[in-house]
């Protein structure tokens, strides 16, 4: 068993309501925790299945095949081929509906949020406040997290508090839409039933804190020919841009130093021989361009660092602070 019962229930809930736990999936999790979820109404057992999926490649034309009792056995009968009949046991026919609001109540209780989670919209609840005074919401499914109007509803409930939303992992552009609206988004699997730190269905509050900003200081987009430093867009000439890309490429590998003659060859082409001192001019222009609009122009200019032995320049940023995009 690789997946815990809480993880399984959350995963099945991601596709939306109704989420069904089949007896076959539930069987390995039988025990006290499972009984408690039944008692609390998180899992509600349904009537035994009377229909079964048709054979994977069947011409019977049925939407589902009937389950029949034959000699005390449950058999999913294939109307066209007896050899495709499937003998089912009780676990196959059992199923449990996962009750979303009861599941969320269980999560809130296990996490120490007092009171009943307040429904905000279909599939979304307001759990309360995090330890760092953020309004905390939980969306069980992708559809719930992305429903129209949700951001406004959450804002009105949060009043002026910043908002954290726990939601299933979603596509990058969907995620960006929520993040752009100022929400802090945490994956369900990142903070609930994630590992040993928070037992059962409880939320690991330490996983809700905003990650320290790992935003790179320098972002270069090659195709678009844009540069931003410390979040400020910089205007560079073609030559300045080419020089910065060259230095960034080298800074991302080793050695970071680009020798003067390599810079010359890059800017003017290998066939033209010039004296090294002429590299100073494009370097100065690049430093000026980067420093323009920066509060600390001196330290920005020093990012294009003079080096000796070999004589050249390097971009004085650690590789994790440089993002060189195609
Ligand atoms: Zn069949």
Describe this protein with a few key phrases.
single chain; alpha+beta; Arc Repressor Mutant, subunit A; 3 domains; 5-stranded mixed β-sheet; 4-stranded antiparallel β-sheet; 13 helices; binds zinc ion; Sig_transdc_resp-reg_C-effctor
Can you describe this structure?
With about 325 residues, the chain is α+β, with helices and mostly antiparallel strands. The chain folds into three domains: about 5-100, no CATH class; about 100-210, no CATH class; about 220-325, Winged helix-like DNA-binding domain superfamily/Winged helix DNA-binding domain (Arc Repressor Mutant, subunit A, Orthogonal Bundle), CATH 1.10.10. The protein contains 13 helices and 19 strands. It has helices at about 5-15, 25, 30-40, 90-95, 100-110, 140-145, 150-160, 170-180, 190, 240-250, 260-270, 280-290, 295-300; strands at about 20, 45, 50, 65-70, 75, 85-90, 95-100, 120, 125-130, 135-140, 165, 185, 220, 225-230, 230-235, 260, 305, 310-315, 320-325. It has a five-stranded mixed sheet, sandwiched between helices. A four-stranded antiparallel sheet has the order 3-4-5-6. Strands 15-14-13-19 form a four-stranded mixed sheet, covered by helices on one side. Helix 10 (about 240-250) packs across helix 12 (about 280-290). The chain is elongated. The model has no long low-confidence stretch (mean pLDDT about 90). Zinc ion binds near residues 58, 60, 80, 81 and 84. InterPro entries: OmpR/PhoB-type_DNA-bd, Sig_transdc_resp-reg_C-effctor, WH-like_DNA-bd_sf.
């Amino acid at each position: 068993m690789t997946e815990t019962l809480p993880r399984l229930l959350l995963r099945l809930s991601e596709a939306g309501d109704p989420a069904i736990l089949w007896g076959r999936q539930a069987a390995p999790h039988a025990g006290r925790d499972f009984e408690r979820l039944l008692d609390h109404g998180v899992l509600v057992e349904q009537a035994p299945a009377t229909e079964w999926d048709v054979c994977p490649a069947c011409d019977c034309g049925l939407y589902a095949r009937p389950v029949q009792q034959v000699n005390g056995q449950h058999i999913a009968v294939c109307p066209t081929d007896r050899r495709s009949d499937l003998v089912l046991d009780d676990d196959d026919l059992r199923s449990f509906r996962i009750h979303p609001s009861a599941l969320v109540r269980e999560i809130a209780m296990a996490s120490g949020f007092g009171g009943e989670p307040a429904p905000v919209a279909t599939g979304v609840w307001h759990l309360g406040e995090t330890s760092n005074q953020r309004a905390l919401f939980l969306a069980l499914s992708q559809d719930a997290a992305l429903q129209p109007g949700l951001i406004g509803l959450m804002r009105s409930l949060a009043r002026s508090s910043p908002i954290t939303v726990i939601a299933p992992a979603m596509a990058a552009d969907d995620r960006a839409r929520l993040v752009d609206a100022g929400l802090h988004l945490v994956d369900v699997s990142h903070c609930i039933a994630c590992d040993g730190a928070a037992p059962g269905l409880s939320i690991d509050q330490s996983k809700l804190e905003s990650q320290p900003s790992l935003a790179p200081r320098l972002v270069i987009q090659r195709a678009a020919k844009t540069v931003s430093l410390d979040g400020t867009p910089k205007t560079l000439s073609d030559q300045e841009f080419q020089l910065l890309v060259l230095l960034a490429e080298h800074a991302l590998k080793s050695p970071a130093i680009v020798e003067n003659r390599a810079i010359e060859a890059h800017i003017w082409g290998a066939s033209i021989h010039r004296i090294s001192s002429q590299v100073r001019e494009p370097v100065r222009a690049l430093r000026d361009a980067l420093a323009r609009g920066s509060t600390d122009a001196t330290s920005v200019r020093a990012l294009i660092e003079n080096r000796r032995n070999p004589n050249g320049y390097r971009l004085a940023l650690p590789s994790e602070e440089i993002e060189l995009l195609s």
